[in-house]
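ESCALATION

Customer reports they have been waiting on this structure for their group meeting. Please prioritize. Original submission:
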Amino acid sequence: MTSRCWATLIMLRRMVHIGPLMALFVIFTCSGVAMIDCMLWTWTPKSGLMGKIHLGVFLSWVALILKHFFTAMFIGPGLVPLQWTPEIDDDRKKMQYCDACKGYKPLRAHHCRICRRCVMKMDHHCPWINNCLGFKNHTSFVLFLFFVPIGCTHAMVVYCVTLYNNMAGTRIYYRGQPRVEFSLNALLMNIVAIGLALGTTIAVSVLFFQQMRGLVKNRTGIEDWIVEKAEERPRGEDEETFIYPYNFGWKENLWQVLNLRCTPIGDGVTWHVKKGCPVYSLSIEQLRQKQDKRSQIVLYIGSDNYSGRLMPCSKGLKTCLCIPYADEPRITIKADDEILVTRATKYWLYGEIKKDLDELVTRKKGWFPRNCANRIGRLQDLKQTFDGSKKDN
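Update from on-call: job pushed to the front of the queue and completed.
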C-alpha cells in the first residue's frame, strides 16, 4: 500500500471519532434545516435576486466552516520529528527531554499523551477535531470558531422568520395555494434547530473568546499555566524576574496567527523573543518549575486495591461524586504499591507508581482515590534521611 493510501486511511480514522462526528452532525443539521427553509418558505431563490444572494451568502458560511474544520483536523498541529536534537549541543542543557519521543522538545513544544508525539506550539488536544491544536492548524481552528457563530446566527434568523411567517399566517401563495404546506414535522424541525444553533453559538463563542484572549497575549493554554506558576514561584537571590518572551504587543501577536495569508509565521521550532529576553527563558523556567515539583513529591504506600474505574462506588460516596475534572487517566493500584504523588484534591491523588526510592521507573501515571493509600512523607526528606543513615553506618 502506497504512502498516499496510508495517509488517506489515517485521515479517515481521525474523522471516525465521537468529536468530529458530533461536530459534523451539528453543522449539517443546522445548515440543512436552514436550506430547507430557504428553498421552500423564506427568501427563496425564486422570489428574486435578493433571494439568490441570500442563499449564496448562507452557503458561503457553510463552506468556510467546513473548510476550516477539515483543515484544522487533517493538516494537524505540526509534529516534532522523533529523536529531534538541537543543532548546538550546548542548547540541550536549556531544553526539556521527552522520554517517549527519545528527543528534545523545541521551544514552545509539548508532548501530547493522546497523539503520543511532541507537538509544535501545543495549545491543547481538541476532541472536536480529534487532533491537537498547535502551530500549523491554529489559524484554521480560530477561523472555524469565528465562522460557526456567524453561520448559526444567520441560520437562527432564517428559522425564526420561517416560524413567524407560517405561524402568523403570512405564507407565500401560488395560484391561491401555499407552495408547500408547513406541517407539524417542519415546526418541530425548526424548533429543534433553533435550540441546537443557539447552544452551539454560545458554546463556540466562549471558545473563540478564550482563543482570542490567548492570541492577543501570544500565549497557548499551556503557556498561560506556565506563566501563572512562574509568577507565584519563589525565586532565589540569583534569579531574575521572569518576563514572558513572546509578547510583542497585541497587533504583532495577532499577526503571527491571523494574517492575510492565513498561515502561521515561522517554522514552529525557532521563535523570535522580545528584546532583552534570553531565547530559552521560557524553557529554563519550565525546567526550574519541574525541579521544584520534584522536590515536592510525596511518597504514598497503597493500602487498598483500586481497579481504575471512573466512579469507584466502593471507595465512598464522596470519592465517587467528587472526581477530578481533568482528562488525565486513572491508574490501577494495589496494596503495598509505592506511588509518587505530585498533585492532590480532597478525595483524589495524582501520581506515578515506582519501584523503590533509589531507582525510579515510571510504569503508570494518573489519578486514584486518596483513601486507597497512606502518606509516608516527602521523597526528598526520605532520601536525605536514608543518605544520613548510610553515612552514620
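Sent to customer with the following note: The chain has ten helices and 13 strands.
Escalation resolved.
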